[in-house]
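Extended Data, record Flavodoxin family protein
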Amino acid sequence: MKKKVLVISASLRPGSNSHALAEQFAEGARQAGHEVELVSLRDKEIRFCRGCTACQKTGSCVIRDDVAPLLEKLRAAQVVAFATPIYYYELCGQLKTFLDRTEPLYGRENAFRQVYLLSAAAETEDFVPKRAESGIQGWIDCFENLELAGTVFAGGVQGPGEMTGHPALEQARAMGAAVQ
Ligand SMILES: Cc1cc2nc3c(=O)[nH]c(=O)nc-3n(C[C@H](O)[C@H](O)[C@H](O)COP(=O)(O)O)c2cc1C
């Protein structure tokens, strides 16, 4: 069945390694016939959640920045893939800041059911993305009927544009193509 797939790419730098994973995932999902949108947080103004919880009454955030249109896309997508650089063994701050700002969706009817996490880091060991996976799992656990459906980790990439020929690219494409 054709699904709406939203890919959110969090790295702010040109030539981003995790963005290359995001593009491959999106391409795979597109080839499989899904409706896919890839958005980057790079050109977005995303301010910190203030914790006022006004959104729990009104359904919308008091902060006027670029988050509201992203939330519209997010709540309508059945499948969401997040791409992040690993920063200090965790999700990058800009992705965490965005996740905090999804508070208007908390406790409401949302379409999303499956989450994927794509990450890139300089180190190669298996433990490197684990806290980021745990971080995204924490967000997932706060929403009903949502699961971590898959992860791809590209280790050994430090500078921008280092993903050429990396095996994680094909893993990300295959994961996108396998979305059901
Ligand atoms: C603030 C910061 C923290 C980082 N922390 C880690 C780390 O804990 N482990 C690691 O292997 N690489 C770390 N890196 C390296 C990045 O994960 C790596 O350069 C990655 O390829 C960046 O992905 P991007 O090109 O998508 O931004 C860090 C880089 C920065 C700038």
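Summary. The chain has a mean pLDDT of 98.
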